[in-house]
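Query structure, 235 tokens:
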């Protein structure tokens, strides 16, 4: 982790924190910190800064905090991501959070198997953990708005137009030949389908809702690769 992300319950005083578990192990085994060292820290939903190590042993990490830096601003970006395979889901959610998306919607699609929605990785506690890992990687403290949309048509017809108001909507889909627009009105809503793309009925629904097609070329990319490539082009 590039940032030790503190939760409100970690605070033992306004400028003190006590950590155990995964973060303690990481600081000991990866950072190899010692008493007196300073670590990059941040409070979930708050400022970032430095944490001076007061105690570090098998039981706990105790820090003295100086939180005087604002977190980086979120991108004016809503990601609509068709739910990927469970073994890929963690990487995609963490990557979306680390890239700075303000909103992430995990969306159903025809090529999304029903079993994906029943995976333990779709549980709120796992999704939150992956978002936190993404924030730690990117040195950010602000959670994106993450939600699930299990019904494609009601979401696209009833909710998507509101997300697009005053901004730019894009639909990544192979074979359209459409390049990234030169001028993007913020905020941006970007829809990324399953590997292999959306089915034709979904394409037409997304276009009708106001999204414009976007093509990355003839290669079929994994979801996490397409995500990084598209956000890099747009921002």
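Result returned for the query:
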């Amino acid at each position: 982790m590039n940032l030790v992300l503190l939760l409100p319950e970690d605070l033992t005083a306004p400028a003190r924190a006590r950590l155990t578990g995964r973060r303690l192990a990481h600081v000991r085994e990866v950072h190899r910190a010692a008493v007196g060292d300073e670590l990059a820290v941040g409070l979930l939903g708050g400022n970032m800064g430095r944490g001076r190590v007061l105690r570090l042993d098998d039981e706990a990490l105790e820090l003295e905090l100086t939180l005087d830096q604002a977190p980086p601003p979120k991108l004016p970006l809503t990601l609509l991501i068709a739910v990927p395979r469970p073994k890929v889901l963690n990487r995609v959610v963490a990557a979306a959070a680390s890239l700075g998306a303000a909103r992430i919607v995990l969306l159903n699609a025809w090529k999304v198997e029903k079993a994906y929605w029943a995976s333990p990785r779709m549980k709120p506690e796992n999704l939150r953990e992956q978002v936190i890992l993404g924030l730690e990687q990117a040195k950010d403290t602000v959670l994106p708005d993450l939600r699930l949309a299990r019904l494609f048509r009601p979401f696209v017809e009833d909710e998507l137009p509101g997300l697009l108001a005053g901004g730019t909507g894009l639909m990544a889909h192979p074979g359209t030949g459409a390049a990234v627009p030169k001028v993007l009105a913020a905020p941006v809503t970007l829809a990324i389908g399953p590997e292999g793309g959306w089915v034709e009925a979904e394409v037409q629904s997304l276009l009708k809702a106001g999204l414009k097609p976007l093509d990355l070329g003839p290669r079929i990319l994994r979801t996490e690769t397409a995500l990084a490539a598209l956000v890099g082009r747009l921002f």
